[in-house]
UniProtKB/TrEMBL annotation:
Keyword Signal: yes
The organism of origin for this protein: Undibacterium rivi
Annotated signal peptide: 1-21
Keywords, alphabetical: Signal
Name of the protein this chain belongs to: Uncharacterized protein
Length: 238
């Protein structure tokens, strides 16, 4: 089970009946996690409608990766922006505001018109969205476990190995001294990076290949961490 699928599962399970949840989550989570392998832009707005109905925008742990994923799909399909925005205008008001932010964040030609008129957002939501700073996970070094989730969202949409390498690089950071400022966050980050790499090595041949490429060129602490991630993935996959 991939990192993104687990995030969506945790967020949505309590919002649906068990039978419906299993069906909805498999469709939503797997489609998102493996999008880069089989891009299907013609299904994108329907999928996003389904995600909104299932409650994907209700919890931050699922909401923000979904917003970044949507941003990346929009960047790859700028010519579809206006039509997609029109299709998404019927999403619930809560989901629509987050979709509006994804359009704004993508900075495609249709973004401004989508946010300001097409989606039918409130004046308050429009003002908030247009006043935010655009966010690109690849342009910064991850500073929290949440940043790692955003990188996995980029990878799921695009297959970009830069996103995976940024997660790998977290494992190369020095182990923090207990009790020092930021030590708890760093321990959480390193743990989340290793766990998510292990999980995605199992699920994605491309991730396994990216990790293997780094293993043959790295040494010291990072080589050891990657060896352990691969070994753990192998054990879990048996």
């Amino acid at each position: 089970m991939s990192q993104l699928f687990k995030l969506l599962s945790i967020s949505l399970f309590c919002l649906c009946s068990v039978a419906h949840a299993q069906e909805s989550l498999q469709h939503i989570g797997e489609w998102m996690s493996h999008y880069y392998e089989k891009p299907a832009p013609d299904q994108f707005t329907k999928w996003l409608h389904d995600a909104a109905v299932a409650g994907a925008f209700e919890k931050p742990s699922a909401r923000f990766p979904l917003m970044i994923f949507t941003t990346e799909i929009l960047k790859m399909n700028p010519d579809k922006g206006s039509l997609w925005c029109e299709d998404l205008a019927t999403v619930s008001s809560t989901g629509k505001a987050y979709i509006g932010w994804a359009f704004y964040n993508s900075n495609i030609p249709a973004a401004e018109q989508c946010v300001q008129t097409q989606l039918g957002l409130s004046d308050s939501d429009i003002q908030k969205i247009m006043g935010t700073t655009r966010y690109d996970p690849l342009s910064k070094e991850p500073a929290s476990p949440a940043d790692l989730d955003m990188l996995w969202a980029v990878f799921s949409a695009t297959g970009n190995e830069v996103a995976v390498n940024k997660i790998i690089d977290v494992l190369a950071r020095p182990a923090p001294k207990k009790g020092t400022e930021g030590s708890t966050n760093m321990l959480m980050m390193k743990g989340a990076a290793k766990w998510s790499l292990t999980s995605n090595i199992q699920q994605h041949t491309r991730v396994a290949g990216i990790v293997e490429k780094r293993r043959v060129t790295e040494s010291g602490v990072l080589k050891k961490e990657l060896d352990e991630a691969v070994a753990n993935a192998s054990k879990s996959g048996r």
